């Protein structure tokens, strides 16, 4: 699991199923809740909906998808790291990619139950600007912001 073997590339649909498998496994572990959408719907969302308003990059270790990020110039929509690759700097690499392609500030939401994510974002310069639960999972959310406030 050497970091320097991991390449970050633009997402391509040939990686969709593997990306979704990694995403679902990581999310399920983070929030202790099964994904509410079918696998097929999740793949459709990645290929056809998320990709409309976001740049999507994936991290590849040899041929294995080990991370993904979806963002636009002002918001990070998704960021997931394979459970075996967390805590090794890969999330920070993907976050830096979003920061360098931003307007100088980014917002994002994370689930309140996901303490690991909160620690990660706060360690990387994000601060809490709001709370709520406008998500399909009906879990409390925390809204974070980074950059020129």
Describe this structure in words.
With 149 residues, the chain is of the alpha+beta class. The chain has one domain: Aminopeptidase (3-Layer(aba) Sandwich), CATH 3.40.630. It contains 4 helices and 7 strands. The strands form 2 sheets. It has a 4-stranded antiparallel β-sheet, with helices on both faces. A 3-stranded antiparallel β-sheet has the order 5-7-6, covered by helices on one side. Helix 1 (16-31) packs across helix 2. It is globular, with a radius of gyration of 14 Å.
Task: Tell me briefly what this model is.
The N and C termini lie far apart (36 Å). The protein is globular and about 35 Å long.
List keywords for this structure.
single chain, 149 residues, alpha+beta, Aminopeptidase, four-stranded antiparallel sheet, three-stranded antiparallel sheet, 7 strands
> How many runs of DSSP E, i.e. beta strands?
7
Taking Cα atoms only, what radius of gyration do you get, to the nearest Å? 14 Å
In the CATH classification, which architecture applies?
3-Layer(aba) Sandwich
Q: Mean pLDDT, as a whole number?
A: 92
Percentage beta strand = 25-35%
Main sheet characteristics: 4 strands, antiparallel
Whole-number tally of structural domains: 1
Tally the helices: what do you get?
4
What is the H/E order?
EHHEEEHEHEE
Low-confidence stretches: none
Helix content: 25-40%
Derived from helix and strand composition plus strand pairing, the structural class reads alpha+beta
CATH class: Alpha Beta
CATH superfamily membership: Gcn5-related N-acetyltransferase (GNAT)
Distance separating the two termini? 36 Å
